[in-house]
């Protein structure tokens, strides 16, 4: 199926786009197309229109030390195809600029601004040339992801000011919020322009937690990348680490034992459970329904204590390793999990019945913060946010990893796109997760937990996708000498943040925290 | 762990006594995320859930550094959060305390060698107490706050 659709895709390219391209179907079935940089926007636009593809990632590589140039990698997902289309284009060293995809693919917006910041390659034709991750006081001509950048050297500050979008008119005023917020949340800056109560513009400024994860990973041996991946975004650390492990394993061609695959599935779902529990609790709290929120928080705490009992960490830390898992689920852990989940399910039923029958709660969440399907599609919004706006995609079903192909589960989808739709997706997913864990525990095969990784040949590339509780998470690697030559991380939040700017339009300012909570995005995962 | 509920009561009781001795009534803390991975924040939030419910022991997490006796800082202090942290520190009235929470805040942790980070909070504002862990458990945070209170007592 994959091969048929993909070879047809190439043969279908109109002759103008086909000249000068080279393509190849890889062993894993994925399609690689090498194109000239100037042809990139045309080809991506064609595939997008004809096959309804979505942008998984656009990132750059510095191949100069290998005698090459800069390279752009565009990864596209296609419906009904389990492998991505990989488009590569070289960017001339001296020109250091490329044709922007953003005018035809809005989802490319932040990717290209990030490339511009970290590689110094200018996206020509991009409507927004402001910095994204590196601040305005970052000196011109210093690009941290280029291979000749020395991360140990301190980078001086050059004073300058970030130009926010200006909204002007009678009675329009601005509310700046953050980076230090009133609640205990991560740092980010939100600038609202309002006329009376309704929001007429929101501009989100991220980057406060940019730590330089990708550069750091490119200097660490593979096994040290695992704890780093766990700390990209703390509350979905396990699924990030899993994505990283899978990417390294695909470089080395390592076959992970069955038992480990099932344990990975169980732990991934345990992570989703405690996170979703916090999310639905947070939504209740932001509608000022404190009692309901605390019901969910008690369950969240119980689930985190279960994590602790099973893996020794409330955040499932150190459970992942290359080639398998580091923590077993023996019979008594299995019983602990089953017993706790049974109780959690009952108590969660109570919570759900309570909020579903509470008009004052429903009044706040229905028709609030609507993200239309059209907007969600154009920004390639992923995860529960996408599924709340009618995008029926889930990595666990569409690109199965770990043991998900041996388990049956439903992917809940709602079409309204409001806070309530996103809440219902998360509620349904809680039940699905419990079901997945129960099945996986029943089917848990015996055998080894972990096998040696083996050699990762230099120059090989590996891609891995996982479904975190926020949505699709991507790790892309190019192998170097015992460590990644290039490591690209893309958290679900990176795709979903721009969608909040659209979802809040026309809503009143006091509803912003609620809308934000229903998205529940990671700042650290976004900023890296 | 839930099995040690009574342990928590004891710990909380000790903290409450110290807070009364040192500050009279309650301790107000502002949390500042200076580039954490967000797991440290999850644990600070956990302190306020009904299981730990630290407000009953006199610890209050406030919305602004202006209302705070101490700031609890997480993360290695990224280049982009340095200004936010310094401003939060300066906004606090004297006497004030800085508590650095988690290995990132202590010495940069994994991000020690990174171009975009400091090597911990101590490089940016003076730190009074360090709470180890990645992230520290809720009980460890309470312990750390007690150490801070003892220090405060000595300073008086
Ligand atoms: S100390 Fe650990 S948990 Fe806390 S911010 Fe750093 S990496 Fe995250």
Structure in words:
The complex is a heterodimer of chains A (528) and B (156). Chain A is α+β, with helices and mostly antiparallel strands. Chain A has 2 domains: 2-124, NADH:ubiquinone oxidoreductase Nqo5 subunit (Beta Polymerase, domain 2), CATH 3.30.460; 213-318 and 330-443 and 456-527, Cytochrome-c3 Hydrogenase, chain B. Helices cover 41% and strands 17% of the residues of chain A. Chain A has 18 helices and 15 strands. Chain A has helices at 2-11, 15-18, 40-51, 109-119, 213-217, 222-230, 237-252, 258-286, 290-311, 331-356, 359-365, 373-378, 383-388, 395-398, 419-443, 492-503, 512-519, 523-527, and strands spanning 22-25, 31-36, 54-62, 70-77, 85-91, 97-99, 122-124, 172-177, 189-195, 199-205, 320-321, 324-325, 461-468, 471-479, 484-490. In chain A, strands 1-2-5-4-3 form a 5-stranded mixed beta sheet. A 3-stranded antiparallel beta sheet of chain A has the order 8-9-10. In chain A, strands 13-14-15 form a 3-stranded antiparallel beta sheet. In chain A, helix 4 links the parallel strand 6 and strand 7. In chain A, helix 8 (258-286) runs antiparallel to helix 9. Chain A is globular, with a radius of gyration of 23 Å. In chain A, 53% of the residues are buried. With 156 residues, chain B is of the alpha/beta class. Chain B has a single domain, classed as 3-Layer(aba) Sandwich (Rossmann fold), CATH 3.40.50. Chain B has 5 helices and 5 strands. Chain B has helices spanning 5-23, 39-46, 82-91, 103-107, 138-155; strands at residues 27-33, 59-61, 70-74, 97-101, 129-131. In chain B, strands 2-1-3-4-5 form a 5-stranded parallel beta sheet, with helices on both faces. Chain B is globular, with a radius of gyration of 15 Å. The termini of chain B are far apart. Classes of the chains: A alpha+beta (528), B alpha/beta (156). The structure holds iron/sulfur cluster. Iron/sulfur cluster is lined by residues 36-37, 39-40, 74-75, 102-104, 109, 134-135 of chain B. Iron/sulfur cluster binds at residues 36-37, 39-40, 74-75, 102-104, 109, 134-135 of chain B.
